[in-house]
Amino acid sequence: MTRSDIGLIVILAALVAVPFVYREPYHLHLMVLILIWSFAYTSWSMMGRFGLVSLGHGGFMGIGAYVTALLWNHLGLTPWIGIPFALIAAGILALIVGYPCFRFRITGHYFVLVTLALSGIVLQVITATRDYTGGSLGYTPARATSGNNILALQFDDKTTWYLIALFVWLVGLLIWRLIDRSMMRYALEAISEDEDAAAAAGVNVTAEKLKITLISALMTALAGALYCQYQMFISPDTVSGIAVSLQMVFAAIVGGLYVALGPTVGAIITILLAETLRIGFGTGAVGWDNLIYGVLLVLFIIFLPQGILGSVLERFRIQRKPA
């Protein structure tokens, strides 16, 4: 066992032990949010790191959240069944949008515009079907009869939700690692450099792009479903639309798009920024976070394109190189 493996085991043990040695509800709440959003940002990075810039992931997250809640409220389907249905719906939508784009070589800013339209369409559908979704007023999953209900995936205990979110976050990092060590990574890197050259070398461009898009969409929908079950309230502005998609872009780039833990750093920044504005300025700061995201995103793209964690790791690599 290497020193890095031992260090990883110690870190994981410390993370698991956190809610048992420190039970302050508010701080545990923040950590749960950071872990869930880290998973969502990691899912966006799965595509973004290979040049597939999507502004439609807010749509996938909205589908995950609303389909799960609607099936529970109207049909009585437990989230354990509703979440797979939500993932299937998000996957089908990803294939419907992705296949024509990749088959007919819709890339670059054209692909960004298509995904932007997807996010807007999902937002409008949620708002227009207000009789079922609550529209812009938001939607609340029905409460189970008991406080902690495994069947309804509802828990009053922050410790339970922390452990669930931690497990999902670790699964996201594992998926990142598996892709990073697979042939898919080399195929997608070749595609991002030159599609024609990759195709000439035998890479199935459409299939590879569809695979990474499907993985990313499913992960994002799962993040939306978990966020809905944890918060017990969702609205189009919090889980869908262009604002959520831009938040994912910001967090991934600021944290470090090409580093596995980069999205986690981005989640820490976004959650703490939102909480600081909420506590410091209250309702007077509504929308400020999106403004700050936009300004910081421009600055990071210009002056720190590798993100915070990526730049730190690069600095260590340079210092450790022999003279």
Question: Which terms summarize this structure?
Answer:
323 residues; 0% strand; globular; mainly alpha
H/E element string? HHHHHHHHHHHHHHH
Question: What count of helical segments does DSSP give?
Answer: 15
Share of helix, binned: over 70%
Low-pLDDT stretches: none
Note the beta-strand portion: under 5%
Major pleated sheet? none
The average pLDDT score comes to 90
Query: How large, in whole angstroms, is the Cα Rg?
Result: 20 Å
What structural class is derived from the secondary structure elements?
mainly alpha
Shape estimate: globular
What is the end-to-end distance?
A: 29 Å
Per DSSP E runs of 2 or more residues, the count of β-strands stands at 0
Structure description:
This protein has a domain at 22-241. The chain is globular. It has 323 residues and is mainly α. The mean pLDDT is 90. It contains 15 helices and no strands. The longest helix has 27 residues, at 205-231. The protein starts with a helix and ends with a helix. It has helices at 3-21, 25-48, 57-75, 79-103, 108-128, 130-133, 158-180, 183-193, 195-200, 205-231, 236-239, 242-255, 262-281, 288-303, 307-320.
Please outline the helices and strands.
Blueprint: H1 3-21, H2 25-48, H3 57-75, H4 79-103, H5 108-128, H6 130-133, H7 158-180, H8 183-193, H9 195-200, H10 205-231, H11 236-239, H12 242-255, H13 262-281, H14 288-303, H15 307-320
